[in-house]
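Homework-ish question, so no full write-ups if that breaks the rules, but can someone show me the predicted structure for this set?
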Amino acid sequence: MAVKRLVLDVLKTNELSIIQLSRDLTAVKGVGGVDIVVKEVDRKVEKIRITLVGKDLHFDKIKEVVESSGAVIHSVDQVSAGKIIV
Amino acid sequence: MSSGWQLFKKNIHYLRSSGVTALARRYFVMNSFDGALTTIGLLMGAFVGGLREPHSVLAVSVSTAIAIGLSGAWGAFLTEKAERKRELKEWEHLLLRKLDKTDLASAQRFAAYYVAAIDGLSPLLTSLIIISPFALLNASAESLYVYSFALGAVVLFSLGLFLGHLSKENKLAFGVKMLLAGVAASAISFLLLGGKIG
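A: Not a homework solution, just the prediction itself:
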C-alpha cells in the first residue's frame, strides 16, 4: 500500500538552503508537495521538519536526496499510508 | 549527486545564499585596486627611469600583471579551500556523517574556484586595461605613458563609483577617494625616484 505522507526530523548545515532542498524533494517522483519548517537554529546547524505528501512516496529516494544535499535524517516522525490520509 | 546542469544551478544558488558572492565582490574591488596601483607604480618607475621603448614597457608590465593575477588566484584558491575544508569537517562532526560526496561539498569546491577566478582575473584585467595603450596605439612613448596614466585614473575612479553604488553612498566621493590613492602612489614614486624625467 502506497505511503502518502511522511514527516521527517532532519538536521542540516546552516548553509544548505531549505528553498533548494524543497525544490530537490519536489523533483522526486511520487512527491506531490513538500513543507519544511525550521524548528531549531544553532550556530552551524539547523533542525528542520520536512513534511512530504504525494501519491506514492519512496523513502529511499527521498533519503538519497536529503543526504546528497548534505543533511541527515534523524528520525521518521510520522507516516501515513493507504488509500486515504488519516 | 545531481546531474551536471542541476549541480551548476545549485552551486550558483549556494554562492548567493552562503554569502560567497558578497565576498567575491569585496575581493574584486580590493584586487582590482591592487592591480591598478601596482601597474601605475610600475609605469611611473619606468617613466622616471627613462624607459622609452614601448615594447620593453609592455614586456615588464604584462609580466607583472600575470604575476599579480597568478598570485591572487593561487593564494585565494588555497586559502578558500582550506577554510571550506575546515568548515566541512566541523559540519561532519556536528552531523555525525561524511559530507565529501554531497552537493554541499561540491558547492564549496565551486565556491573556492569562483573566488580564485575573481581574485586572479580582477588585478590582471585592470593591469591589462592600463597598459593597453602600449600594445594598441602607435604614438610617442611620452604620449603612451600619459594615456596609460589617464586609463589608470579612469579605472580607479570607476572602482570608486562601483563602491559608492554598492554602499548606496556618494559615488563621486568614493571615486575621488580611489583616484587620490592613485595620485598619491604616482607622486610618491615620482618624488622618491628623483622627480625628474630621465
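Now go work out the reasoning yourself. Hint: DSSP finds two helices and four strands in chain A.
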